[in-house]
Amino acid sequence: MLQLWAAAAFFLGIHLVIAGSGARGRIVATIGERAWLALFSLASIAGISWLAYSFNEAVAGPNHLYWVPPLWALHLSPLVILVATFFVVVGITTPNPTAVGADALADKPDTVKGMLRITRHPFLWGAAIWALWHILVNGDKASIIFFGTFALLAILGTFSIDDKKRKRMGESWTAFAARTSNLPFAAIFAGRNQLKLGELGWWRILAALIVFGALFYAHLWLFGVSPVPGFHPY
């Protein structure tokens, strides 16, 4: 379990302490943007790999169960994870000023449409939903640490990105942020935007359904756990 804590600290550290602080700017000034992105990508891959390995080791050893996953949550999992997959897939395929190197999109009048009407951080909120739900339907210490790491990074990441973009983009970011929201649907409920499902793009919705279907079917094979009780397709 100690190794899992260390892996979680490393993964959070490179994202929140290094990439999410002034340290990033100092490193970029020294080695350049491309070298930084390459180095950070390698560190992230290493961090995820270490987390996954440490999680499997922790699950195989003494692992305290804090609560028994409620049966209703286990049966509701497909719907919740479908929503998370929708946010992730539609989010990463939608042009977004919050993405790396996409600042200029904020100045385009037609940028705020589709998924960006719902939230300006769809990928991160999809990851947060996925992680938080996996904590609920597992209830053990290793899962809380593992999935909690991703949930914490995703949620704090939305605020970190907002802060960095605001400082770098100035008025462009202010105007973009005024038409969107961090929290899903907040801008719509506040009357600052409208939900227009037709703008999402049918191919994005189809892609999300395909990804969800593939992960649902392969979950038992990939992770050794059925996505819902009684589902054993092979």
Write a structural description.
The protein has 234 residues and is mainly α. The protein is built from nine helices and no strands. The protein has two domains: 1-62; 66-234, no CATH class. Helix 1 (2-19) packs antiparallel against helix 3 and helix 2 (22-31) packs across helix 3 (33-60). The longest helix has 29 residues, at 141-169. It is globular and about 50 Å long. One of its GO terms (molecular function) is 9,15,9'-tri-cis-zeta-carotene isomerase activity. The chain crosses the membrane at residues 6-23, 35-53, 73-92, 118-136, 142-161, 202-224.
Topology:
Layout: H1 2-19, H2 22-31, H3 33-60, H4 71-92, H5 122-136, H6 141-169, H7 171-179, H8 186-189, H9 202-223
Helix pairs in contact: 1-3, 1-6, 2-3, 4-5, 4-9, 5-6, 6-7
How many strands, what sense, and barrel or not for the largest sheet? none
N to C succession of SSEs: HHHHHHHHH
Q: What share of residues is helical? A: 55-70%
Computed over alpha carbons, the radius of gyration is 19 Å
Mean model confidence by pLDDT: 93
Fraction in beta strands: under 5%
**How many distinct helices?**
9
Distance N terminus to C terminus? 32 Å
Keywords: Membrane, Transmembrane, Transmembrane helix
Pfam families: NnrU
Subcellular location: Membrane
Transmembrane segments: 6-23, 35-53, 73-92, 118-136, 142-161, 202-224
